[in-house]
TrEMBL record:
GO molecular function terms listed in the Swiss-Prot or TrEMBL record: oligopeptidase activity; serine-type endopeptidase activity
Record has rRNA processing as a keyword: no
Root EC class: hydrolase
InterPro entries: AB_hydrolase_fold, Pept_S9_AS, Pept_S9A_N, Peptidase_S9_cat, Peptidase_S9A, Prolyl_oligopep/macrocyclase
Signal peptide: none
Name assigned to this protein: prolyl oligopeptidase
Gene3D superfamilies, alphabetized: alpha/beta hydrolase, Prolyl oligopeptidase, N-terminal domain
SUPFAM superfamilies recorded: alpha/beta-Hydrolases, Peptidase/esterase 'gauge' domain
UniProt keyword terms in alphabetical order: Hydrolase, Periplasm, Protease, Serine protease, Signal
Function field: Cleaves peptide bonds on the C-terminal side of prolyl residues within peptides that are up to approximately 30 amino acids long. Has an absolute requirement for an X-Pro bond in the trans configuration immediately preceding the Pro-Y scissible bond.
Protein's organism: Flagellimonas marinaquae
Keyword Hydrolase recorded: yes
Residue ranges annotated for the Peptidase S9A N-terminal domain, each copy included: 31-429
Length: 718
């Protein structure tokens, strides 16, 4: 007995020694970031800006700083033992054929397809005989895959096409015109197109929008006068005619033009911010069409979705926060003549047209519901969707008898369905063959109370059978701004996270569009703190209900969501183990001085508006709220050196502040992707590398020395 007891004691002692054994931390020596004596004065308050020099994206000093920071960051990431395993798993799971919804142009059916790990989707086409051919392959545009296809528009008869490309992720585009049949380029490349689509007028030319090229850096200099141009084929771009936006009276930050399907009208939208627009039309059947005003204020979001002759159908949230469809005659199109066709409901409306019908998608607690109406506003049917999730693509040309829609949710890869507009019947057109079984995972929607008692929905997705013991690695992802709605959709990277036992939680924060204009406005300007409170309350819900705990919680968001993460981690650094702010708006006092940032003022206000707004913004601006002596979570800031939407200086400054003031032992690193922008068009290879780094950093700083689910690793290695 004594020998057995001694053996047991030794085993117990050894076990205790094993559990208390501390792993060796990865030592980080941060590069020295110099400080300058720049000070701004706002309403009598002096605000230092010691890292102002990092705003100069063209300087050799900034370039050297980027290289030093990346060397430090990748030196750390290289030491994470399972980073390569994550990359391999991401590559394996990513490597399946992906096909977009087909669309008809002329005699061809076109569609986007990626055979697995191609950096960019390829545009294919085929005729009725079913013979497939490549139409455009963006993978041939550059050697490293960083030049992407960012728009494709055909003439009404499908005989010509124009497409836009982005180089290195920039928002500045080049336009190329081709003969669609021969696929030959027919004229010189257009340059300096920005925040624009292409809308053809017959076969003669097309409308597009851009700014004058700014002085200084084209990646960060302010651009605030958008202009709509008409390009006539066969003429140099220098002769393109300004249609709208060229005068002081017509000065707006965002201007767009689109031609009606019957080619009768040009509709022009003009905005000073990302919410609210003026609306005009021109009758293209006239030789010298006049500009006719539909709306002369920016109090609503309004656009034309269809016309029958002079009868116009518009979607608007004017006096209808959740949107409605109205009808009016083009001869007298102002709001006092609008008549409701599809009235506002308690759910937010998104409307499209196809086959001579309206299709209205409603968000019911962020879940899709689709109704079909005729042009008299009569309800034809509710479309019974394949499941609970997000539907998209309900729309096509007026003569279409069938079109395609997509369906997905957080644990179901997107599939495509062919829909018959007359019968309402549909069949599955394409289903991905992916090494992921959605039946092993589940999503549940919960509602929690925010700080002020507002009820907020959140969808939580994880592997079935997950034990709610507070030890599950969890990513809480949010956005909360610009009327953007986060609806359920499948992501390969999230699938890899959940394979490893991870929980993925997405709350529908105020500032988004899930419950209409009132929900959006409740997270703007002097109510922006509501967004952060909603996010904090979501984290507290996950912890209280044992999905996770502080030690296993990471918060993540990009762009406005990067601001969300930055504000949350500086207000509640005790709440999470890891923070992952991506391409974030971090310097809220100066965001409006870069590129088109001033257009975000509807959501944020600016530090120059008044003293109250300045003090409010300064109170949450991430760069200005990093405090000495505070232990911040392990932080991996990510950005791109060619991001001209949210310039990388935001992230540079935030990382510099964290590295200077971090009082804890957690690393505060910045990963700067070179030759990359805000995210759109990023090559698949770069995306895989980035997420291997993000997930590796996250799990390692949650205390994992190996991946939680080794069975998956063994399976894909075998």
């Amino acid at each position: 007995m004594k020998n057995i007891s001694l053996l047991a004691a030794l085993v117990l002692f050894a076990a205790c020694q094993e559990t208390t054994k501390q792993r060796e931390p990865i030592t980080v020596t941060y590069p020295t970031t110099k400080k300058v004596d720049t000070v701004d004065n706002y309403f009598g308050t002096e605000v230092p800006d010691p890292y102002r020099w990092l705003e100069d994206d063209r300087s050799e000093e900034t370039e050297a700083w980027v290289k030093q920071q990346n060397a430090t960051t990748f030196g750390y990431l290289d030491k994470i033992p399972f980073r390569k395993d994550l990359k391999n798993r991401l590559e394996k799971l990513w490597n399946y054929e992906k096909v977009g919804s087909p669309f008809k142009e002329g005699d061809y059916t076109y569609y986007y397809k990626n055979n697995g790990l191609q950096n960019q989707y390829v545009v294919y086409r085929k005729k009725d005989d079913g013979k497939e051919e490549v139409f455009l392959d963006p993978n041939t545009f550059s050697e490293d895959g960083t030049t992407s296809l960012m728009g494709l528009s055909f003439t009404k008869d499908g005989s010509k096409a124009a497409y836009l490309i982005s180089e290195g992720g920039s928002d500045w585009r080049k336009g190329i015109v081709i003969n669609a049949e021969s696929m030959e380029i027919v004229e010189d490349t257009l340059v300096d197109i920005k925040f624009s689509g292409i809308s053809w007028k017959g076969n003669d030319g097309f409308f597009y929008s851009s700014y004058d090229k700014p002085e200084g850096s084209e990646l960060s200099a302010k651009t605030d006068q958008h202009k709509l141009y008409y390009h006539k084929l066969g003429t140099p771009q220098s002769e393109d005619k300004i249609i709208f936006g060229g005068t002081d009276e017509e000065k707006h930050r965002y201007v767009g033009g689109y031609v009606s399907e019957d080619q009768k009208y040009l509709f022009i939208s003009a905005s000073v911010s990302t919410s609210g627009n003026k609306l005009f039309l021109m009758d293209l059947s006239q030789d010298n069409p006049e500009l006719v005003t539909i709306l002369d204020d920016t109090d609503s979001d309004t656009y034309v979705i269809e016309n029958e002759g002079s009868k116009l159908y518009l979607v608007t949230n004017r006096e209808a926060p959740n949107k409605k469809v109205v009808v009016v005659d083009a001869s007298n199109p102002t709001p006092d003549n609008w008549k409701d066709l599809i009235p506002e409901t308690e759910n937010v409306l998104t409307a499209g047209t196809g086959g001579g019908y309206f299709f209205t998608e409603y968000m019911v607690d962020a879940i899709s519901k689709v109704l079909q109406y005729d042009y008299d506003g009569k309800l034809i049917r509710e479309v019974e969707l394949p499941g609970v999730g997000s539907a998209g693509g309900f729309g096509g040309k007026k003569e279409d008898k069938e079109f395609y829609f997509s369906f997905t949710n957080y644990n179901t890869p997107g599939s495509t369905y062919k829909y018959n507009v007359e019968t309402g019947e549909y069949e599955q057109y394409w289903k991905p063959q992916i090494d992921f079984d959605p039946d092993n995972y589940e999503s549940k929607q919960v509602f929690y109370n925010s700080k002020d008692g507002t009820k907020v929905p959140m969808i939580i997705t994880y592997k079935k059978g997950t034990e709610l013991n507070g030890k599950n690695p969890t990513i809480l992802y949010g956005y909360g701004g610009f009327n953007v709605s986060l609806t359920p959709s499948f992501s390969i990277v999230n699938a890899v996270w959940m394979e490893q036992g991870g929980v993925y939680a997405v709350p529908n924060l105020r500032g988004g569009g899930e419950y209409g204009k009132k929900w959006h406005d409740a997270g703007t300007k002097l109510q922006k703190q509501n967004v952060f409170d909603d996010f904090i309350a979501a984290a507290e819900y996950l912890i209280e209900n044992k999905y996770t705990s502080k030690e296993y919680l990471a918060i993540r968001g990009g762009s406005n969501g990067g601001l969300l993460v930055g504000a949350t981690m500086t207000q509640r650094p005790d709440l999470m183990q890891v923070a992952l702010p991506a391409v974030g708006v971090m310097d809220m006092l100066r965001y409006h001085t870069f590129t088109a940032g001033a257009g975000w003022a509807y959501d944020y206000g600016t530090s120059e508006d008044n003293e109250e707004m300045f003090n409010y913004i300064k109170g949450y601006s991430p760069v200005h709220n990093v405090k000495e002596g505070t232990a911040y979570p392990a932080t991996l800031v990510t950005t791109g050196d060619h991001d001209d939407r949210v310039v990388p200086a935001h992230s540079f400054k935030f990382a510099a502040e964290l590295q200077e003031k971090q009082a804890g032992d957690q690393p505060t690193l910045i990963r700067i992707e070179t030759n990359a922008g805000h995210g759109a068009g990023t090559p698949v290879s770069k995306t895989i590398e980035q997420y291997a780094d993000i997930f590796g950093f996250t799990l390692f700083n949650m205390g994992f020395d190996e991946l939680p689910n080794q069975a998956v690793l063994k399976e894909f290695k075998d």
